[in-house]
UniProtKB/TrEMBL annotation:
This is Peptide ABC transporter ATP-binding protein. It is a peripheral membrane protein. Gene3D superfamilies: P-loop containing nucleotide triphosphate hydrolases. Residues 4-254 form the ABC transporter domain. Its main location: membrane. SMART domains: AAA (SM00382). The lineage of its organism: Bacteria, Pseudomonadati, Pseudomonadota, Alphaproteobacteria, Hyphomicrobiales. It comes from the Bacteria. GO terms for cellular component: plasma membrane. Pfam families: ABC_tran, oligo_HPY.
Amino acid sequence: MALLEIENLTVEFDTVTGRFRALDNVSYSIEVGEVLAIVGESGSGKSVAMLAVMGLLASNGHIQADRVEFEGMDLLNMSRRKRRKVIGKDISMIFQEPIASLNPCFTVGFQIEETLKEHTSLDRKQRKARAIELLNSVGMPEPEKTLKKFPHQMSGGQCQRVMIAMAIACEPKLLIADEPTTALDVTIQKQILDLLMDLQAKSGMGLIMITHDMGVVAETADRVVVQYKGKKMEEADVLSLFENPQNPYTKALLSALPENATGDRLPTVSDYHMNGEGAA
């Protein structure tokens, strides 16, 4: 049984001009201990599917699916009470823009301990000790002092480490990382990726890496799902995808990498006459 199974998931949003389909009959799964990359440009629906899984779509969102199951449990028809026990504990998510995702009104310590308070039976003293342990595990210097800091007192890279600490606080079986290196400089990006892969290897959790960066895909993934305009274009193991891409959009993404440049300019997606066809 797969850890997470998504079958024919469609997500639409109400807009002033009518319904907009952000995700169109997308299907994929992830196994225990696997790293799955979901790749595509902005607006391809990469994050929408995961927000649907987490129950975090905006109120104007509408979901249809044949199946969205976590360890055999139906996430779409699960009661709110039961869902709260699963989300944040067994399934956790690292969001884009870590500074914006952390609450500016509360200290780092308060926010980590709130997660532990919700999902564990630890007392106050134990929660603080666990928060320090988590900050240590993600490489934060002086973790006891960090507990007392507010998000605006830290750098983007430090906020991202705090977000990761919160996400792994309850030792999730599935971690979703949504563009975890966005807005970070190259050195910090490498550190964050190395940290995520190290945590994944040690815990054996499933990891879904949402990204537009094919370099991140090559470095982290076991298997890759390529999306374009809300549709799944291709799915393959990472080696097959890079060596023998089957879909024109996948070829466009790979050809646009600087190391694959063959002329004076890089090709663009429009060079491949992409208009949404070729969905897997």
